[in-house]
Amino acid sequence: MDEVRISQAARSANWVKLEYENQKALQTLVGNFVQPGTTFAVTPTSVNFLEGTTTTITGQASGAQKVYWTEKRNGVDTLLATDTFSLPVTAGRVTGNQSYVIQFKAIYPSPAPNQTVDIPITITEDLPDPVFTLTGPSSWDGRQTITITPDISNLATLQAKNVANSTYNWSVTGVAATKTINAATPTVPGSLTLTRSQGDGPMTVTLVLSNGGSLVSNTKTITVQQPATPDAWVQRTPGANEKPVTKQFFARDPNTNNGTIFYNGTGAGTTSVYLKVFAKPNGGTETPYGATHRLTPVAGAYAFAVPIAAGLVTYKVEFGTTTGSTDTPTHTVTDLVCGDAYLIEGQSNALATDNAVPADTNTSPWIRSYGSTLGWGYATNKDSELQLGVWGWIWAEYLSATYSMPVCIINGAVGGTRIDQHQPNPAGHALPGSLYSIYATLYNRIVGANLTHGIRGVLWHQGEQDQGSGGPDGDYNYKFYQQYFMDMSAAWKQDFPNIQKYYIFQIWPAACGDTFRNDQLREVQRTLPDLYSNMRIMSTLGIVPGSSCHYDLAGYQKFSDLISPLVEQDFYGYSPATVFSAPNLKKACYSTTARNEITLEFDQNIAPWIAATNGLFFLDRLAGKVASGSVTGKVVKLTLTAASTAKTITYLQGADWAAAGSVQGSLIYGSNGIAALTFAEVPLTPAAPTGLGATPGVSQVALTWTAAAGATGYNIKRSTTGGGPYAVIGTTAGTTSYTDSAATNGTTYCYVVSASNTAGESADSNQASATPNTPYGAWAADSALGLTTGVNDGPLDNPDHDGISNVLEFVLGGAPMVPSQTILPKLTRTGSSWFYEYDRSDLSQPPATTQEVEYGNNLTGWASIPIPLTGAGSVAITAGSPTDHVKVTIPAPGTNGFVRLKVTGP
Predict the structure, then answer these.
(1) Tens of pLDDT, residues 44-79
(2) Higher pLDDT residue, 462 or 712?
(3) In whole angstroms, what is the distance from residue 407 CA to residue 791 CA?
C-alpha cells in the first residue's frame, strides 16, 4: 500500500476503480479527445539517428478511442506510452549499430478494425567507448609508492565527441594494500596510487571504465614482495606542549625495549628548566632514574625526551626551574608505566560484556586503558570506559604476569554492528559523521592517549551481524566483507603505523541464531589471511557458548587461552613444542579416477578420525555423501558413498550445526587439540598429476604423465631453473602427453604439469628435466666418450690426433678419444667395378647429417653420390644396429682416381 486517504464521503466501487486506474503511469482509463476525420499515419515513417541523440515520432489516428506505442526489440514487446500522439525517442549508448521497431496502434469503435503501423528504428554507433591498458610497474616492494594509470589510446577521439568524462571503478585483489584513488578529468585520466602492502604474492589491479556506454575493463598483475627485514619502528612526533599525565601508559619500541616520555612546553622565558625521572620497581623503593635532564629554553620553548625501560616499574616525573644550584619543582606526574599496547575491535563477542560475568572490582597497575572522558586509568573487565571485556581482561592479566610487562588495551568494539559500520570517514578519520562514529571514537581515543605509534597488534572478533543482507550494498554482506576488512586495516596501518600483527577469530557457526549465509561469511574470514603476511586466524569452534550468542566465563577464558600463544610467539619469543594455530584447509581434490574419494590437505597434523565427523561434510551442499574418513598426518581421506560429480565441498553447515545442538565431539581437531576452521563451498580441484617424465629430442622434449583424478585438462609449465618459477607453455584437453616443440638444443628445461577442471587447478606434479639436442650434440655429451664440453667436443675437433674429426667419428661409429683408423672407408675393386664402403652409425642417419660420396680425376672437380636413408641406385645399404653398411659403386676412374666421404652437419 502506497497511499491511504480518509474521507467522509461514501465512494462507489466504480469510483474506486477509476481512481486506481488514474494513478497508473500509463493512465489506462483516461486519454486524449477523439480526433476528427479518418487519417491514420505516423511521421516520420522510419528513424535513423545517432546514439546519444533524441527525436520525436508523431502519430495521427482520427476516430480512434485509444492509441498505444510499443517497442519491439529482441523478441520482447515493451509498452512505451498510451493516449498520446507524440512519442520522444532517445537513442541510448550502443555497441555497434542496432535496429528495432516501434509500433503505433489505434483502437477504434466496433465494427471498425484496429490499425497498426511499424516504424523501423536504426541507431548508428557514434560515441566510442574508452580503449585502454593499465601502465605501472610489474613488481612492487610494498613500501615505495607506485601509481597505476590507464593509457587511453582513443582519448582524443573521446574528447572530440565530448564523452571523455568516464566513471572509474578501481579494485585491488590478491594482496591487502593501502590505496588512494585519484580523480579524473576529461583531459587527464584518473589513477590509482598504492602506498603500502600488507602481504606478498600476485596482486591484481582492475579498472572498469564507462563513459555511458559499455563497461570496459582491464587488469594488471603486480608481483608483491615485501622487504625481508622487518620495518623500522616509526617514531611519533610529539606536540609542542605535550606533557605526561598521571597513570599514563607509554608504548615500548621493541627494538630498544624503551618508551619515551616527552615533556614539552612554551612560555618559560629564559630560566633554566630541569626534568627528573624516578623509578620504582614492583615491590621496591623509588630511586632516581638516570641523571637530571637540564636545558635553557629557546624563545621560551623547551622539549625533553627521556627514554624509560619497559617492565613492572612505575615512573615519576618532576619538572621545575633551576636558579643557581637550586632546583624548584613546579609539576610532578606519577604512576607512569611502559609496555605493550593492543586494540580489541569488532562487535559483542569482542566487547565481551554482554554476559553474566560480574564486573571485576579488582584492578592492576600493570593493566591500563584510555577512555574518551576518563582519560588514563586502571582497566576493568566491564562496566566502565576503561573496560577490556571479559576475555580481554583475562588475556591482559596473563600477559602481564607471564612476561612481567605492563599491558594497555583499548577496546573499541560495539555490539550488534556490521563491518561497514567500522569504516573510517573518507573526509577524515577523526570525523564521526553520521556513519563513522565507531572508527572515529576509537581513533580519537588513541590520539588522546598519544598511542598512535604504540599499537602493536589488533585483535578482531566480528561478523555475527554480517551473516545476512542488512548492509548498505544491496546483497549478502559476505560478498563485501573482504574489501571492507582490507579498507579498514589499511586505515589502521595508516593511522597506527607500528601495527605488526592482526589476530582474527572465525565466528561460531550460525552465531546468534543467524543461519542464512553464515557459512559463506566464515569462509571469507578463513581466507582473509591469504591476503596478508601479518595475520593469524583462530577458530571459535570447540568453545562451548554460555548462551545462543555469547559466551560464559569459561568460554571467554578459552578465547584468551587460544589467542595468547599466537601473540606470545610473535612478540615475546615463545617457542612452543607444538603448533598452536587452528588447522586450516590448504587443498581439496578428488584422489581417485572413479571420483569416489576426496583428499583434504591441512596445514598441520590432524587428530585421529571420529566417525561422527562424516556427517559434517556436504558435497554441493548435499549431506550424506561421506561414508568414512581416515587421517595420515596432515591429510584426510574421505571415502564417498558413491562416485560423485560434485564441484564443491563444505565442512559444517551452520544451519545443520545449530539444529543438531552443536555436538563438539564430532569436529575435526588438530593434533594440538584445536578445532579446525570451517570451510564452505571450496572447489574440488583435481589431484596433482604423477609420474611426469621428459624425453629429449632435437629441438623438442616429449612429456608424458599419469592421469589425475577429476581432471578435464592439464597445464604444462616450464622453467630453466629447478624448482621454478614456471611459465605455462601449453595446455591439453585431457590427454596425458605433450611435446614442447619450442625448446632450444643444449638448454636444460624443468617441467611440471598441473591438472584442471571447472573447479580450478591442482597442485603441480613432480618435476622432470631434459636437455634437447642434435644427435651429434647428444653423442658428444655422452660422458662415456670422454669429451669435454666447450674444449674438444666440436664437430671438427680431433682430440685423439688420429686424423679423424669428431663428426666423422660420430658417423663411422668411432671413439673420439681412442686413435684408430680401422673405421675409415675402404675403396676396393672387383673386375672393372670400383666400390667405396663404410659403416654408418644409426645416430648419424639423415636428417642428423647429410652424407655424400664424392669422386673425380683430380682434387678440384668432384662428382657427388648422395647417401640416402635406404639403398637406391648405385648405393646399397645393409641395415644393422648400431650401424648400417654402406656400399657405393663408383664409375671407373681414369688415370687418377679420387674418392672421399663428405659429411655435413650437425
Answers:
(1) 999 999 988 999 999 999 999 899 999 999 999 999
(2) 462
(3) 70
For residue range 15-26, list pLDDT tens digits in order.
676 666 666 654
Q: What are phi and psi of 86, to 5 degrees?
A: -135, 125
Q: What b/e string do you get for 626-655 counting C-beta neighbours within 10 Å, with b at 16 or more?
A: beebebeebebbbebeeebebbbbbbbbbe
- What is the C-alpha R_g of the chain? 41
Could you tell me the CA-to-CA distances from 161 to 156, 158, 165, 186 in Å, in that order?
9, 5, 11, 11
Residues 269-323: tens digit of each pLDDT:
889 999 999 999 999 999 999 999 999 999 999 999 999 999 999 999 999 999 9
Q: How far apart are CA 623 and CA 636, in angstroms?
A: 18
For residue 427, which amino acid is it? A
Report the C-alpha gap between 690 and 705 in whole angstroms.
6
DSSP 3-state of 248? coil
Q: Rounded to whole angstroms, how far apart are CA atoms 350 and 295?
A: 47
DSSP assignments along 328-341, one per residue: EEEEEEEEEEEEEE
Taking the C-alpha atoms of residue 407 and residue 564, their distance in angstroms, rounded to an integer, is 13
Query: If you average pLDDT over residues 137-147, what whole number do you get?
Result: 97
Q: Residues 250, 163: contact at Cβ < 8 Å?
A: no
Is 242 exposed, middle or buried (CB count within 10 Å of its CB: 0-12, 13-18, 19+)?
A: middle
Is-contact 392 409, C-beta < 8 A?
A: yes
Taking residue 13's Cβ as centre, other Cβ atoms within 10 Å add up to: 7
Q: How far apart are CA 310 and CA 257, in angstroms?
A: 6
Secondary structure class of 897 (helix, strand, coil): coil
One-letter-per-residue 3-state SS of 553-621: HHHHHHHHHHHHHHHHHHHCCCCCCCCCCCCCEEEEEECCCCCCEEEEEECCCECCCCHHHHHHEEECC
